[in-house]
Design the sequence.
């Protein structure tokens, strides 16, 4: 800065006590505005963490498919996230959060594209008790995309690209937002007393159901089941699968932490801290359970099961990461890990070919986590005398079960109809030759790991 | 002129190469291969499904030498690659009809 420029500034400063005094305005934000700022900021940061889970899913899947299908798996993940972002903007967000604008009360939300606040909040009074619409949309969109990511892993190595992407668009524009509105949009499941903090059911089991129905309709990969035996199809890159798992684990801190929905008071910040600690504990519990069980059953630990175990622990704690103690969270996660170790061979017995273990992790552990909520948290209701009464554990358990069945039935029917439609119109499975050659060569003409240089 | 094909345990490759360089072998080709002999396979479990690993990773060394040094080269490979445990590999010796050096067009013994 040149010395001459000081002169007017000093002059101005000298004038402040006299001139400025009369006009002085207190620019300190109100407590409500500070709360709004912190909560909004929290949604943006945790939303970025949840976004990063897309990378986690992608790396996990790239590592667990065979090398001839890696480029296709990367392509699907890139495309599904981007399509989900557009579908959620055009339809999903307002269908999920209709406010007072339900098309069918508490069942079907509003049909309109997402609109953000104007630049600089021009002429708009924001709801200072919550967060900006933009941050809420950004955060919720990432959950919607995560649901679609779950499906891609289970159906890998044999599904056609475009029918899969059509499914993703319908899933993220309609199926996910409609059922999510029943709980998080304040719809009938919420009013019934259903508890699902960050989406063991709303997100994970929805992805899991869609994947299960898809896997059943699509059939197993060629050569996976022969003469009553399961033929292992080894993952092509375990370092990538492990990196993907750690990325998901990290993203989950945003997934569960942000689902506190408020960071405007000391109590809320303390709760978010509990949530992150519990989320971490559950992942650790799931991983250790799978480590010990595979050592006991198979004489050698199975890394891919340990990865699935950690993720199952995370899914299990997602329905209630706040109220359990660290010990309870570890146990809830550990049960998730146990479920994975039993469920993976069980699905193979049924000849349901789930390439990355998405169904045990997201569906089975999701159901477990949703039921486990009843142990630690019971919702309240108003009795006839107008008093607030907490439900019993069994009553809560029943509501959890009922909600799992309702959401499950809706997603199973909706995805079955969609998969069967796609199957009859365009076909959902690649040709036998394409599957044997690998989707990278047959569908894309691009190898993930070119083994020979081509000149 | 003889072609020596030696199938060896991969971790022995560097030791064998050094020993061969010491006795004057000037060139060789190596490939990563898989196979089984008396060592056969073993079973493993992946995601709960048992499978047999039939083909064990090995390296295959190919060396062309003049007939008079074959015994010395084979002896060197054998003593260096030996671990006395099953799966140490095999050495094959084959006749070579003709050799051409691509750069100069030299043939046979001159091209080794």
Sequence:
């Amino acid at each position: 800065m040149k010395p001459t420029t000081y002169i007017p500034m000093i002059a101005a400063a000298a004038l402040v006590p006299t001139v400025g005094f009369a006009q002085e305005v207190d620019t300190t934000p109100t407590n409500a505005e500070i709360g709004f700022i912190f909560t909004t900021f929290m949604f943006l940061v945790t939303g970025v963490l949840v976004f990063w889970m897309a990378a986690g899913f992608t790396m996990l899947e790239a590592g667990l498919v065979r090398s001839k299908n890696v480029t296709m798996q990367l392509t699907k993940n890139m495309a599904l996230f981007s399509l989900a972002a557009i579908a959620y903007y055009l339809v999903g967000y307002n269908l999920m959060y209709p406010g007072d604008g339900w098309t069918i009360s508490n069942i079907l939300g509003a049909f309109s594209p997402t609109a953000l606040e104007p630049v600089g909040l021009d002429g708009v009074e924001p709801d200072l008790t919550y967060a900006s619409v933009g941050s809420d949309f950004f955060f919720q969109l990432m959950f919607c995309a995560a649901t679609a990511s779950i499906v891609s892993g289970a159906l890998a190595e044999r599904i056609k690209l475009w029918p899969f992407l059509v499914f993703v668009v319908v899933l993220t524009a309609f199926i996910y937002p409609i059922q999510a509105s029943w709980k998080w949009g304040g719809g009938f499941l919420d009013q019934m007393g259903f508890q699902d903090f960050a989406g063991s059911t709303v997100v994970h089991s929805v992805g899991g159901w869609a994947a299960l129905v898809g896997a059943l309709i699509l059939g197993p990969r060629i050569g996976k089941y022969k003469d009553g035996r399961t033929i292992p199809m080894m993952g092509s890159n375990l370092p990538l699968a492990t990196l993907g798992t750690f990325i998901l684990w990290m993203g989950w801190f945003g997934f569960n932490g942000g689902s506190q929905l408020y960071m405007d008071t000391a109590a809320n910040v303390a709760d978010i801290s509990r949530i992150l600690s519990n989320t971490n504990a559950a992942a650790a519990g799931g991983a250790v359970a799978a480590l010990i069980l595979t050592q006991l059953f198979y004489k050698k630990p199975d890394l891919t099961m340990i990865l699935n175990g950690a993720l199952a622990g995370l899914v299990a704690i997602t329905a209630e990461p706040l109220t359990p103690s660290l010990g309870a969270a570890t146990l809830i996660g550990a049960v998730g890990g146990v479920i994975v170790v039993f469920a993976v061979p069980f699905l193979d017995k049924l000849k349901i070919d789930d390439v990355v273990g998405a169904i045990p992790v997201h569906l089975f552990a999701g159901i477990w986590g949703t039921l486990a909520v009843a142990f630690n948290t019971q919702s309240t209701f108003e009795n006839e005398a107008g008093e607030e009464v907490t439900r019993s554990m069994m009553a809560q358990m029943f509501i959890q079960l009922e909600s799992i069945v309702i959401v499950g039935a809706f997603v199973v029917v909706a995805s079955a109809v969609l998969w069967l439609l796609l199957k009859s119109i365009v076909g959902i499975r690649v040709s036998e030759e394409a599957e044997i050659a690998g989707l990278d060569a047959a569908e894309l003409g691009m190898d993930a790991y070119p083994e020979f240089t081509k000149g | 002129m003889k072609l020596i094909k030696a199938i060896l345990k991969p971790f022995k490759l560097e030791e064998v190469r050094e020993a061969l360089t010491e006795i004057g072998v000037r060139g060789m080709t190596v490939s990563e291969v898989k196979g089984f002999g008396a060592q056969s396979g073993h079973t493993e479990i992946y995601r709960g499904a048992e499978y047999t690993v039939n083909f064990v990773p090995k390296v295959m060394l190919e060396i062309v030498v003049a007939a008079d040094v074959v015994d010395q080269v084979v002896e060197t490979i054998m003593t260096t690659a030996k671990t006395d445990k099953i799966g140490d590999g095999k050495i094959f010796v084959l006749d070579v009809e003709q050799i051409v050096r691509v750069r100069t067009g030299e043939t046979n013994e001159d091209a080794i």
In short: The radius of gyration of chain B is 17 Å. The first strand of chain B starts at residue 2 and ends at 8. Chain B is about 20% helix and 35% strand.
